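Progress report, Aim 2. The chain analyzed during this reporting quarter is listed below.
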Amino acid sequence: MLLLLPQTKHGAKAAGCIIKSVGSNSTISTPEILIMKTILSLLVILFIAPIAVAQNSNFITGTIINAQTAQPLEGATVFSVPGGLYARSDERGRFVLPKSGGATHLSISSVGHTTQNLSLADFEKSGNIISIDYKNITLSDVIITASPASSFNVVGKLDVKLRGINNAQEVLRFVPGLFIGQHAGGGKAEQIFLRGFDIDHGTDISIGVDGMPVNLVSHAHGQGYADLHFVIPETIEDVRFKKGSYDAAKGNFATTGFVEMKTLNVIENNTIKVEAGMFNTYRTVGLFNLLPKSKKEFQPSAYIAGEYLLSKGYFDAPQNLNRINLFAKYYQQINSHQTFSFSASGFYSKWNASGQIPQRSVDDGSIDFFGAIDPNEGGSTSRYNINAMLTSTLRNGDYFRNQLFYAKYDFELFSNFTFFKEDAVNGDQIKQKEKRDLVGYNGSYHKTIFMGVTKITSETGVNIRVDYTNGSELSRTKNRSTVLSYLQSGNIQESNLAAYSQHTIAFNKHFSIQTGLRFDYFKNRYQDALQGGLDAKVNNHFLSPKFSFFYHANKQAEFYLSAGRGFHSNDTRSVVKQNGLNALPAANSYDVGTILKPTANLIINAALWHLQLNQEFVYVGDEGIVEPAGRTRRYGADVSLRYQPVKWLFADADINYAHARLVDEQKGENYIPLAPSFTSTGGIKIITQKRLSAALRYRYMANRAANETNSVVAEGYCIADASVQYNHKQFEIGLDVQNILDTRWKETQFETESRLQNEPSPVSEIHFTPGTPFFAKLRFSIFF
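Predicted structure tokens for the chain:
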């Protein structure tokens, strides 16, 4: 953002140009002028905005930190007593409250931390810094307030702290109603299901880690491909999510919602973990401090983490999954106004896969339930990331966040979905391959002002992302080594520039609203190597308004209403082929919900929702085409329960219903293939005073249509998992068991037309990947 600082004196003129440009077609020659003027004007506004009244003696400002790590604590609730005005700490741990009449004390609470009550005099003596300790989690710590954070993140924070994180891709399951499925040997990104969507590998959910996008546009295997295997789960500190298109800071793919993960800035202990399980599965993890631990002010911290995973797998054809991860992070509070973090990571994985097998081959006994038709499937992938972030706080408490990131990515996948349908001699194996460079910038300005007791919090920012993909290839191959023919080959360049502004207005302790507006501009370019270097370019833009209303009735109930417009982008190759048609189809969504706390130990979150998508896409990877399926409509209900009947027992359940249909097809022929209709997850966890804990969990997905007429059905399943562990200050030992009832289930299913080598003609039926059988894993960790 320093780029435009010398130009702030021209801010009024620049803003006038934007208004004139919008009002007069004669002043706009290309979409690039419109988007650049919009972004430039918003950047100028960012630097004018700090010219505001600084906080004074009429306000209470401070910082909340964790006592063990001295790190800022986000999401803590601060109440003034008496008066009852409240604030939540931001990512810097900072909060600001107006001094209400007669306020003498502050009450501070946060899930998993001690509640503190201190006088304003003691608060000032501490230098306006409040340090709070860890403690056992209780649902009584949860406080409902009329704010977006209360409605959408309270359940997520509880689940992360109670259930822990053992697998990066499994983190997605913290979103109530979200299911994942693997169908390529454990190395490929999982298939995702949420709110009546078969999201494939990420077409309709935005996923990020430390502000860096995980979804990859115009990917060789599928649009929005989101592979989280480059994240070491032990480094994840928090998971934030929101369903629906209601956050202006989130753009592409955030139609059903978004998931954002945050890694640790500081590790409390050095850790070595070793895991060993069935099917020759081994994993080791290490986290090590690189600098001496210190709680002194402005002292830097740095750590490195590594992970290695090896698994033969439960398939008849060994998957031989190998994965290695390295991650390093440096964090420092430079001074009282600036913090800086820098991270770098490297990931490599290779594997074999049994792929999807036809039901008929299992029925006639030609292969086992865990068998394979083509054992030569599999692939390899790697991703290397660099991420730097600087947060600068102004004297009036406002702050800037500037982030630069870069990723280098390689991908190669061999699949065979149809066996011998296209080539009766060599088979139908395909190769999908790409090399990608991803570079981007995120900048935002955050401001809080008061007008009496009315609090206005704003975030205004820009996002810049450019993907350069070289040699994106789809070819027919034999035995992974011989290329028989090329179906696609070329270079892709996709740029996304965006500007947004979002404002939360808390009128009082009962009412608040959130409004947002986002503008995205896309530039797609494809150089086709199969058509003599044909170079095609297309530009598009999209405007996304957002609105939410929150009503805090009392300490036991909050109600909210949200409406928003979002989008998911189409593959660049399809966009340029259609000259921009269906490039950015809109998704309009609505939520009406409540979060209730009828007793101190029970939380209920419920919502009715509706989502209409202007264009559904079907990505046919083995043919290199994108098929438009027309408009779709989905509506449903989500209910989440969290209950703690006694101190040592926690119970949870998520129940989700979705009705998904094609809008332009007649009834009976308008089912959306593989769209989940009814799902539920839940479990119980026991935590004793003797450091022993145990958990039992289930996940259930009902039968669902596998084609548009529901004549072919994808079978549902119900799977139960269990775990037990013992915690000590210096070590931890645990046992995890997946599918404790050894249920035979189909993790992913598709209606596919295929032909086996001995068949005279193709057959259309369910093809599936079997789910994990009974699988036990022992883990042991040492802390020092």
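The mean pLDDT is 88. Helices lie at 11-23, 31-48, 120-125, 148-163, 359-363, 572-577. These observations will guide the mutagenesis work planned for the next reporting period.
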